[in-house]
Amino acid sequence: MKIINISILVRQVAKTLIDLNSSSEPVLITEHGKPTAYLLNINDYEQTQRRLDILEGIARAETAILRNQTFTQVEAEERLNK
To answer: What is the pTM of this model?
Structure first.
């Protein structure tokens, strides 16, 4: 992973974006030696968002199961037919 200080990023933003898009390697942005943000190319960001959506759906399903808020297939079909 590439690490770049915010002041260098400001001076080299075009080069950093070109490097990011060609390598697909995330860039860790630091300020005063401390991590402040990650810079990702658009494809990696969108893929991450899709994965998070899937994980959130799984978490909601697990919660429903634990709360006994689920239906059998027959019950679901009956509800859909109403």
So the answer is: 0.69
